[in-house]
Amino acid sequence: MATGFTFDRFSADNVADPYPLYRAAREQAPVHYAEAFDVWVVTRYEDVRRVVMDPMRFSSAFPVRTPQLPAPGVREILAEGHPEVPALINEDPPAHRRTRDVVTTAFSPDRIAALAPVVTGFVEELVDGFADRRRADLVAELALPLPLRVTCALIGLPAGDLPRIRVWAAQIALLVSVTTGPQEQRAAARASVEFERYLTAEIAARRDYGRGDVLTALVAGGLTDAQLISLVISLTFAGQETTAHLIGSALVLVLHRPELWAALAGDPGLLAAVVEETLRFDGPMQGVFRRAVFDVQVGGVTIPAGARVFAALASAGRDGQVFADPDQFAPGRTVPEPPLAFGRGIHSCLGEALARMQAATAIRVLRDRIPGLRLAAGVQIPYRPDFLHRGPAALPTTWA
Predict the structure, then answer these.
(1) Alpha-carbon torsion (355, 358, 359, 360), positive or negative
(2) What is the rounded CA–CA span in Å between residue 280 and residue 319?
(3) Cα-to-chain-centroid distance, residue 258
(4) What's the pLDDT tens digit per position in 107-124?
(5) Contact at 8 Å (CB) between 276 and 342?
(6) How far apart are CA 241 and CA 386, in angstroms?
(7) Sequence-ordered list of residues with C-beta below 8 angstroms from that of 68, at least 6 positions apart, any chain
(8) Among 155, 167, 122, 362, which residue's Cα sits nearest to residue 239?
(9) Does residue 321 sit in helix, strand or coil?
(10) Which phi-psi region, left, alpha or beta, contains residue 219 (left: φ > 0; alpha: ψ -120 to 50)?
(11) Which residues contact 166 (CB under 8 A, 6 or more apart)?
């Protein structure tokens, strides 16, 4: 099973910039077994697309809030809450189709469009919090809090509960991280159970008295409490991580290019192009996990039945067989194929339009309010060791 290729994803250099590693994999071992992670890594665009487009051969049935390797006591703590059941993002057909129909109805285009002024208001409020200081960490003070506010407003969770929900979401991210120690994992499991109990009460309230929010629409769709809890936690966690990293990465890219930052003024087309190119060049989702249902050949390599597969979406975005000059950040480029940053097929992200809206709004408001914004001098932007997600852990900035 050895390939001779070392997928050293968590070395310091590869955490800071994983793209040379992906390029080497595409050239030397485009489909290979990474023993350190017990996963088959797929790196070329066409192969990645095949994996994410074929739910019959590649299952998505992975736990979202249950760690792969639970520390002692974690299973017992989680048993105090609701059992994790598949819900949309980790659900296979035919059940996936029923859940997706319910969620698609709840996340109607009209409902998303109606959030545009709400998103702008949230960004303005967050910028108000630091505009007079002449310095800010745009991850902690904008990119992280914005998507959670928007997600909670969309679902219908009370704004006053945001501080608690923010802690719970962060703890669930720790719960499933491969770098979390046993004590932290147990604490995160307790936080997950607290969030489940909170959501149980919110769901019961919607069953008694419906409101005009997404949670009411989901309850009306006939899902069980366990399904609803799994779904809302997935939506909260996925929306927070993906959108926050998209905002942070886009800001890193434009602030490293002062001429591009200046050109964004009053050019919505360029702004949209920046968001799209960020998704290709340094997308927030590095990849997705699947499990091979049968022995299956990908790129001439046989992946055995039952094996975990990592479809490297971010590597696909830098594939030179598809994208010209793939390591150049070029907003507005013509692409023969769309990037796979939000997945493809039945599991394509339902919230991608909302994520794009938030990223574009955050950049637009910052450019309008703080035109002299720049990266803090001498700061190396840190990134966390995360297999699935990528975005700056902090983004120190200043302005005159």
Answers:
(1) positive
(2) 10
(3) 27
(4) 778 888 889 999 999 999
(5) no
(6) 11
(7) 176, 178
(8) 155
(9) coil
(10) alpha
(11) 145, 148
Helix then strand count (H, E) for the chain reads 17, 10
> Global pTM?
0.94
Instruction: Give the integer Cα–Cα distance in Å for 308 and 293.
Output: 10
- Whole-number Å distance between alpha carbons of 46 and 316: 8
Using CA atoms of 164, 168, 169, 175 in order, give the dihedral in degrees to the nearest 10: 170
Average pLDDT over residues 346-374: 93
8-state DSSP, 223: -
- In the numeric block, the tokens 């994803």 are attached to 9
State whether the Cα torsion 191-192-196-202 is positive or negative. Answer: positive
For residues 231 and 225, give the distance between their C-alpha atoms in angstroms, rounded to a whole number: 10
DSSP-H helix ranges across the chain: 12-16, 19-28, 45-53, 74-78, 95-106, 109-113, 116-128, 138, 145-155, 162-175, 182-208, 214-220, 225-255, 258-263, 268-281, 313-316, 352-369
pLDDT digits (tens, 9 = 90+) for 376-387: 998 899 998 888
User: Beta-carbon neighbour count of residue 308 at 10 Å?
Assistant: 18
Helix (H, G, I), strand (E, B) or coil at 172: helix
Residue with tokens 């996936």: 96
Contact 309, 38 (CB under 8 A): no
Lay out the sheet containing 396-398: strands in order across. 135-137, 396-398, 374-375
Contact 277, 304 (CB under 8 A): no
- Look-up of token digits 């067989």: 321
Identify the bridge partners of residue 290 per DSSP, sorted by sequence position.
309
29 CA to centre of own chain? 26
First vs last C-alpha separation in the chain: 57
Torsion sign over Cα 129, 395, 166, 363: positive
Identify the band that residue 102 occupies on the pLDDT scale cut at 50, 70 and 90: confident
Give the residue-averaged pLDDT of 227-240: 86
d(CA 153, CA 159): 7
